[in-house]
Amino acid sequence: MTSEQVADRTAVRDGEGSGQEASEGYERGLGNRQIQMIAIGGAIGTGLFLGAGKAISKAGPSLILAYAIAGLVIFFIMRALGELLMYRPVSGSFSDYAREFLGPFWGYVTGWTYWLFWVVTGITEVTAAAAYVQYWNKGIPQWASALVFTVILYFVNLISVKLFGELEFWFSMVKVTAIIGMILIGVGVITLGFSNAGDTASFSLLWDHGGFFPKGIGGTLMTLQIVMFAFLAVELVGVTAGEAADPKKTLPKAINTVPWRIAVFYLGALIIILSIVPWTEFMPGVSPFVAAFAKIGLPAGAGIVNFVVLTAALSSCNSGMYSTGRMLRDLSLNGQGPKFFGQLSKKGLPFRGTTFSAALMLVGVWINYQWPGKAFDYVVSFATISGMWAWIMILVAQLRYRRKADRGELPQSELKAPGAPWTSLFALAFIFMVIVLMGIDKDARISLYCAPGWAAIMWVSYIVLKKRNPKAFERKDYTPAA
After folding, report:
1. DSSP assignment letter at 418
2. Rounded CA separation 71/58 (Å)
3. What topology does it adopt in the membrane (predicted)?
4. What is the reported pTM?
5. pLDDT tens-digit readout, 348-367
6. Is 91 part of a structural domain of the chain?
7. Which residues is 30 bridged to in the sheet?
C-alpha cells in the first residue's frame, strides 16, 4: 500500500473524502459530552438496579468477581470495536464490519439481528416503563403510558440527533447520580456508623456469611449470563460513529473509560450494598438498591429506585428507536433491505426506518397486553443471545481486520486493541462459555430457544434475496485503492 493510498483513506475517515464513510448523509450532531454519557448509559441498565438481586441470591458476594471478569471481557470487546471504528467510522458499525471482513451474508444477518434485538428490547422496556408509572398512580392504564412514552420518544428521534443525544445525556445522568449517591451514603454508613444499619454495616459482611464463595465456584459461573445481560447495549456507542461531531476524538475517549465505569458503577456499588446488607437477605425480584435503602432507613428509597429504573427503561427504548432506524438504512443502502428505508429527512434522520420500528414497538406492546403468555417470553429472551451475537461479530471482524492491517493491505487503526489477537480470542471463548452455561441453566435456557428459528428465517430470506439481487451479496472491495 502506498503512502498516498493511506492518506486518501484517512481523509475519507476524517470526513474530507466523498465516500459513504465520510458522513453517509447524517448530521454530525453528537458532541463529546453526549457521546460520553451515551457510553456510560449503555453500560448501566435495569440489570444492575433490578436483576442483581437474583444474581446475589445465587452467588453471594462472589458476584463482584463475576462482574469484574465480565467487565474485563466487555473492555476487550469495546477496544476491538474501537480499533474498527478508528479504521472506518460508519453508522452501520459492526454490521458493516461483518459485511467487509466476513462477507455480505454475515453483514446481512448481523444487521437484521441487531435491528430485531432493539425492537424487542424497546417493546419490553416501554412496557416496563408503563408498569413503573403505576407505582405512583395505579389508575393510569399501562397501555396509555406505553403509548405516550413511545410517541414522545418517536418524535424526539425525528426532531434532531442533538435532541436524542441530549435526552440520553439526562437519562444517563439520573442513573449515574443515583449510583454515586448510593455509594457515598453507603461509605458514610460503613465508616461513620450512622443510620439504622450503622451498627451492623461492615466490609466483613463480604466474607462472614459462608465466605466469599458461599455457593461455590459453580454458583458464581451460573450468574454469568445475568451479568452479561446487564452489559447489553454497551456497544451502542459504535452506532453513533456516523453522527459523532469528532469521532477520532470522542469515540476513543468513550471506549477507554469503560474500565473505570464498570469499577465504579458495578463493582463499587455492589461492594457497598453487600457491606450494608448481608447477601443472605437478598431475594430474586427485589432490587438490591431498595434493600440497601430500606436497611439504612430511607423510606423514599423505593420511590427513588423506581424513578431511576423508569428512566433506565425509557433510555433503552430511546436508544432502540435511534439504532433501529440506522440499521435499516444501512441494510437498505447495501441492497439487503427495502429501498424504502434508505431515504433521509431534511435534517439527516432515517425517519422511515424509525417510524417502521416505532410502529412495531407499539404493536408488540399491544400483543404483550393481550396475550402475556410464554410465547412472548420466548421472543423477549431472544434479546440476550442476539445482543451477544453482535459482540461475536465485532471480535471476529476485528481479528480479520488486524491480520489484513498487519500484512499492509489496510491502514493501521489509530486505536489498536491491546493484547490482540489474544484478548479478542479470550473474549470469544468467554462468550461461548456463557452460551453453554445458558443451555445448562433451566432459567436461562429459554434465551436459546428462538435462535434456531431466527437462523432459519435469515438463511431462507438470504437465498430468496440473493436470487432477486445477486449484486447485493457480492463481496465488495473495501481497500483504499478501491
Report:
1. T
2. 19
3. Multi-pass membrane protein
4. 0.89
5. 899 999 999 999 998 878 87
6. yes
7. 244
